[in-house]
Amino acid sequence: MTTHAKHRHWDLTEAVIGALIEVHRQLGPGLLESVYELCLAEELRYRGLRFARQVPITVFYRDVVVRAAYQADLIVEERLLIELKAVESFAPIHIAQTLTYLKLLRLDLGLLVNFNCVALKDGLRRLTLSPSRGPDELSPAAHPSRGRENKLSRSHSARGQNELSRSPAAHPSRGRENETKRIIHRETGRQGG
Questions:
Q1: d(CA 48, CA 40)
Q2: 29 occurs within a structural domain
Q3: The pTM is what?
Q4: Which of 3, 74, 139, 178 is the most buried (most CB within 10 A)?
Q5: Element (H, E) at 24
Q6: Of residues 178 and 55, which shows the higher confidence score?
Q7: Which letter, b or e, does each residue of 157-181 get, where b requires 16 or more Cβ atoms within 10 Å of its Cβ?
Q8: pLDDT tens digit string along 30-74?
Q9: Cα dihedral 116→89→146→78 (10° resolution)
């Protein structure tokens, strides 16, 4: 990742963290994740950031494709994953889930956010798959199940049935990135964000 790209990621992350702080400042802890998601979407729209909500995540395994197996809460500017929680505290599975979503979506950077904290800074983790990370970022090598975690939420059911198909043309090495971008563009257009 170039220095320019790093700065773009950091600038975007700062802008999104500002939006998260504003939502938390206005609402405080104790609400449902879905409420925070809607309010964050409105705050991102207000700040002029493009985003998509409930982005379907396709899982590829050999020649099997599971469409819309999961959904990412938000993707901002087609490069930052936001996973929201409203839980007592993060569990290792929350971090693992976010890292897996980054991998499946072919994104480098994500924010895992727990709104159920008195101070939002206690419920915020910046996660990355990129080998060149900042001091507050977590890579798969620093995964909590391997004993390391750095300081810095989600339970939506899928809107549709999972679709299972077998096709050599749908092999994972063919078109994942383009499919993700098409989904993001389509969702962004529908959400108006």
A1: 12
A2: yes
A3: 0.67
A4: 74
A5: helix 3-27
A6: 55
A7: eeeeeeeeeeeeebeeeeebeebbe
A8: 999 999 999 999 999 999 999 999 999 999 999 999 998 899 999
A9: -20
